[in-house]
Amino acid sequence: MRCFTVLGPSQTGKTTLVAKLASLEGTPRKSASPYGSSLTEFDFKDEAWCAVDTPGANEALALAQDALLVSDACILCISPTPDDAVLAAPYLRAIEASSTPCVVFINRMDEPRGRLRDVIAALQTYSNHPLVLRQVPIREGDTIVGSCDLISERAWRYREGQPSALIELPQDAAEREHEARAEMLEQLSEFDDWLLEELIEDREPASDTLFAISSRILKENRVIPVLFGAASHGNGIMRLMKALRHEAPPATALRTRLATSSGAEEAALSAASFHAYHKANVGKTVLVRALADGLKQGASLGGATLGPLQEAGSGKPISGSVQPGGVFAALKSDHLPAPALLTQSASVEPPDWTTPPTPMLERILVPGSERDETKLSATLAKLAETDRGLKVMQEEGTGAALICAQGPVHLRELRKTLSEVFRVEVSDRAPNPIYRETISKPSDVRYRHRKQTGGAGQFADVQLSVRPNERGQGFTFGESVKGGTVPRNYIPAVEAGAREAMEKGPLGFQVIDVDVTLTDGQYHSVDSSDFAFRAAGKMGVKQALSQASAVLMQPVVRVEIHIPSIFSGGIVTLVSSMRGQVLGFDRDENAKGWDIFRALVPGGVLDELGRSLRSATQGIGHFSKTFDHFEELYGKEADTIINAHGAGAQAH
């Protein structure tokens, strides 16, 4: 079986394209996962094929990356509008990182909104591989009625619902065809010395030889050929399928490619998993592509035994072994991660290029009932296993379930899966911002803790000096007690009490960057104890903090913003509008046509940054973040935060 992925932005007709390709001969067999990916098996020219159709939302890019892990080749389906080329940039980036041979298909050419060469030029901005146009359109007025293949120089006229008809190349298209063919030959000659020599000698190379050269160059992943058509009318579909059949690498090449990119031993690779999902009453299903012989129910894969196997498209049980190259669904094989490279005895981490973008949207999931609360933690752990674009954590302070999703669409799909598959109902809210407080001036206090009850009492007297520390120094404790006024065995208890006092200061937040020094005190030979000195230390420090001019501290986060260069002009303004500071930017060395901006922004604006970035970059831009430092915050903004999240909120 040969396998390819169809990927690209939303609204480019990917699903229609797959349906038309799969229906060229016979009846296709299709299955879909709850995450929006679908898998179609079909036959073409006595060969078995499998097409993986991935969602077009940028938040689902991880699904496309995982599908490339098991693909012999891929089809990048794009719009005929030059301005839309940037929407394909994330997919070109993933394709090039994966070294998957690619064919670009410009779809919906029945409604052209720009010149073909402008579309290719715009797309070339984001591709290190040369884009080689392999066809030219035949037009009547503004309507494309057919195409001419630049290698065979045969012209075809589209016919609705029927195969295209071979025609004589119209005279008015001949000059454009000759010009485009010369350009194509020049591009191909860069990768073939024989062809270069033929062109220099002004000899016309034979079509069969050119097809062989173009096939070799695609198998070696040297260029990206460009074809076009209109899937909804069946135009250009047969030509695209024949290009895949003759020019895409065979299934045996995938094993070598995966071993090279991951560092795994090629001979040991038995399979690769690329997608997993949960279904009600079924459990976990893992989609796997076989890379070696002998995979069947009961065989060893990934360090444990395979459960029942099904045909990925039809869902029919598989009784025998899966042939190398075959795609199957593994049930009751919960030990298999996805994506992963699989040997008989272990699962191997997939190559780094499969790592999804850093999730930008943080949300607290609020269970709808006590039963849902009990199930939520274990259920989220299961979902995180099958969705690497999802991160599951706990909120600081409350321990509530905190998830990091790729964006609002990803969050919506997650809640839908929780409800429909696991019967867990949740709502979501923004997490509580992480604020701190410190002091801006020193304070000295004397605090006496005394309680008299029946029997032994409690007595401890401490004299404390509380001072601001340098930023980032944290809490420090020291003592300068002389003459044994506080016995040494009680000093650790004073420090423990002081640390407790740091948990919540006068503004209602954790206190940082403070030094506490025990300078003097008194004790009682009977009534003093660790407990008493701990209580004195805690209450004494609390009193000192209230006198030391508390200051609110907000988190400042360092972000790396990844965007196509076409959007770079607006990023400085966007960051500045959020009281952020741009530190600089560079061209992204790993992705042509992309920039990386580095900036410092207040932690409280990350949600807004995610929304604004999606809006400013048509959903393409993304950022990763790391905590940098805390800084003081004053005035009305500080008062608002204290009233909403600190002492003001607790007082109401």
Automatic annotation (TrEMBL):
List the molecular function annotations (GO) for this entry.
GTP binding; GTPase activity; guanosine tetraphosphate binding; translation elongation factor activity
Where exactly are the transmembrane stretches of this chain?
Answer: none
Residues covered by the Elongation factor EFG domain = 551-641
Q: Which UniProt keywords apply?
A: Elongation factor, GTP-binding, Nucleotide-binding, Protein biosynthesis
Q: Which domain of life is it from?
A: Bacteria
Residue ranges of domain Translation elongation factor EFG/EF2 in the record: 432-549
Q: State the Gene Ontology BP annotations.
A: ribosome disassembly
Cross-referenced SMART domains: EFG_C, EFG_IV
PANTHER family attached here? Answer: ELONGATION FACTOR G-LIKE PROTEIN (PTHR43261:SF7), TRANSLATION ELONGATION FACTOR G-RELATED (PTHR43261)
Its annotated function is as follows: Catalyzes the GTP-dependent ribosomal translocation step during translation elongation. During this step, the ribosome changes from the pre-translocational (PRE) to the post-translocational (POST) state as the newly formed A-site-bound peptidyl-tRNA and P-site-bound deacylated tRNA move to the P and E sites, respectively. Catalyzes the coordinated movement of the two tRNA molecules, the mRNA and conformational changes in the ribosome.
Q: What is this protein called?
A: Elongation factor G
What organism is listed for this UniProt entry? Rhizobium tibeticum
Q: Which gene is this protein's source?
A: fusA_1
